[in-house]
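Re: folding output
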Amino acid sequence: MYDDTHGRRRCFAEAARDDRPDLALLCLLIATEAQGKPGEETVDAAQMELDRLAGLLPALGRQAEPRRWAQALAELLGQRCGFHGSPADYRRLESSLLDEVLRRRRGLPILLSVVWIEVARRAGAPVYGVALPGHFVVGFGDPRGHHVLADPFEGGRVLSEDDASLLVAGATGAPLSPAMFSPAQPLEIVLRVLNNIRAWAAARPERSDVQLWAVELSLLLPTHPARLRYERAELLVERGDFARGARELEEYADVIAPVEPTVAESVRHQALAARAMLN
């Protein structure tokens, strides 16, 4: 079912619209899109690896202290298995692909957090993702009450409130606020993963193919920024698909015209310029 682009996109769209979206599956479908090859075996193998890792955790139960869960995950994944990140991982596309993160045991904070979340969830831990600005981490316990934060990028190091404040201040210069501790929903995590891939590719003009498929997968999510349609249209024009790019620019202009008429007019001029490239 993942053997071609159409099949992979259909599976991704269906998984994204499930009543309870499967975070691991969606991240693995992103990986199969990146690899551009049949991916059912990849998906199954990665899911089995997550199951295997979960089976290595002690049976603590959901009522165990959040810190005990955080320490158990850090001991297993961070110490015994060696999952962590480094600055060099930001330069690799593989750091955003779940199957490669499971294989290399290296990745971006958000992908390492996905590993922590999925392994802990399978073992029955009260776990959730926390989308701190600029640095994704994992929470254990009750997000509205007693909880503990851990940083998988640092091998699962437990974070104090001061540690979290420093992470946020380093990324944004803003103070930490209680709203930042809210659990990140699966589709929010998936969109952030795709945003990271788009940013990686945007810094490498020769990889506009990667930026395009990351945008197209983002557009399959039930909720996404409208401006992604404009980004897709621009990419089509850049890649020489002038007719489709111009058509999508015009459609985007029609959508924003009621609220941003000046911007819409500028986009229509871009569409005209793209059509002129056909002559």
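--- second protein (sequence, then structure) ---
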Amino acid sequence: MRWDAQALNPAPGEHDPDGSGKGGSGSAAGAPAAVPLLPLAGLVRSVSTPEFAGVTFHEVTAKSVLNKVAAGSRMPFEWTVNPYRGCSHACVYCFARKSHTYLDFDAGLDFDSQVVVKINAADVLRKELAKPSWGRQHVALGTNTDPYQRAEGRYRLMPGIIGALADSGTPLSILTKGTLLARDIPLLKHAASQVPVGIGISLAMTDEQLSEAIEPGTPGPRARLKLISRLRDAGLPCGVMAMPILPWLSDSDEALDSLFGSLAAAGATGVTAGALYLKPGTREWFMQWIAARHPELAGRYRRLYGTGSYASKEYRAWLAGRVRYFKARHGFAGSHGFSHRDVDDPRGEEAAYPEGSLPPAGAGAAASAQASQPTLF
């Protein structure tokens, strides 16, 4: 069934000859065209299709896509691009759920099923990068929602974004669970010949059944391990964010040994691990899931996390020790041992990106200096 035939509210003139909004071929299955669910800025249309059952895509035109990281953040980058808001990966534990409430969606089911797509992201980014004021600092992709979620197969926003960054001399990094990234390996290899590139894969468990239950829209662990190997075979770096480690679900010696052994076999260039983080918006959704799927653990989770976002200091110290042991066992001893590098300051996790997932330090300045050199004839 054609994608265009499933527009819920087509723009005037698109499958709507008289501009009335009453549909024609633009209405889903002959039903009246729906009004937009929310007053989203720049909304062009909302799209639903059987190919993505239960998910609605809200196509918007963005005025800007380069986001400045808030002052005081401990993130190891200053700029981000997020072509999608919301994520059909539907990870129960996703830390970004709260951000969907800024659009008047909820942090639970809406986050999984109401996905905002910045359809002009690449064009807007090229214009922003062409400004004389742009300093070619490192730009991180995938810091909020996944740029390689399933919709990327339809919208193909990432090739244009990667090309715009590389052509402008801007270092870039990508963090994803999406094996669709394999489509862009040739493009990433070309970009890496122009600018420093970092690639990170998020993978924190090898248990396929647990993965299917708690991150149901993602490619399974085996598929992501194959992606890591493909990236390394292509000569690209690939760090792994082994987060979140789930108390009593994926923190056993057997689970950790399997995880770090599999990552080593796949060729990961570095690994950072960390315990589940339950910020507001995520906490409520996750606790509902635990109560429904693992009621025997609900009380233990409440006690472990108390009223905060982080597991207790004692648990984090214990997990850090187990992570260090299994990383050393599988040859990762030289990389960051644990995301909470100082258990007294759990926010330290924000700066602990594994080797390979970020461009080399100083890459932005080097790229900027190189780009500013005059061309000699």
